[in-house]
């Protein structure tokens, strides 16, 4: 693979790691076989029973009862309630969509700066999620489908200015529809009501941002961070009564073209659908 030189950092990701990233990609020609495999697992009583009961088998060992807290302090109680409400919601209202205000709250709650830069300290501004070395390799993109007051298009969420920066405007809803089908297989999969989602979030990693310091190990940190942001987005959705669902099945190359990645070190780690739940 042709490795373009990162203008900021020396390329530090090994060929073997690039091979792994390549192997983990999903291409449209594999999508049918891939979804058949998922379907085979999910429709098997044997697999589902074992999956639902699996845990690490310790054998005989000493056990200690954990204490059920009777009363939680208000903030802990709020988190407890959000945890109870967190759920992957795949069906969305077709006639009601999230507003720009709700989207702004969602982004503020799920991924934002919580402590501003102190030039004397030479440390990056703190965010609501932890990051290996404070390098924050994840870029958050939004694909707007139905949010009013925003064009139908792809945006980069600029966490510093709290603005959405338009990367690409689709010429029509049909144009968006075709692109979503190529990148998210929306016509081929029926796991999520894609057409009714107000928007999609794409978590893209710039791996060099992490790997220039941590070498190949930085790939792990980027993946972990995408998980953190995903969880924060789920909790933000629960708190705002919005509905969201992680989407792991997407065509990596189509998605990369759609968003306009410039380096092979930019990879999509996860997508999420967002809408008003039914
Ligand atoms: C990495 C990841 C990928 C996922 N991909 C999909 C997906 O492609 N389609 C889908 O319907 N759900 C997807 N999910 C949601 C899971 O199916 C869901 O979290 C799991 O079934 C547990 O349900 P819950 O989130 O409602 O507790 C994904 C979740 C994660 C964390």
UniProtKB/TrEMBL annotation:
The lineage of its organism: Bacteria, Pseudomonadati, Bacteroidota, Cytophagia, Cytophagales. It holds the Pfam family Nitroreductase. It comes from the Bacteria. This is SagB/ThcOx family dehydrogenase. InterPro entries: Bacteriocin_Proc_Enz, Nitroreductase, Nitroreductase-like, SagB-type_dehydrogenase. GO terms for molecular function: oxidoreductase activity. Residues 86-276 form the Nitroreductase domain. Gene3D superfamilies: NADH Oxidase (3.40.109.10). NCBIfam families: antibiot_sagB.
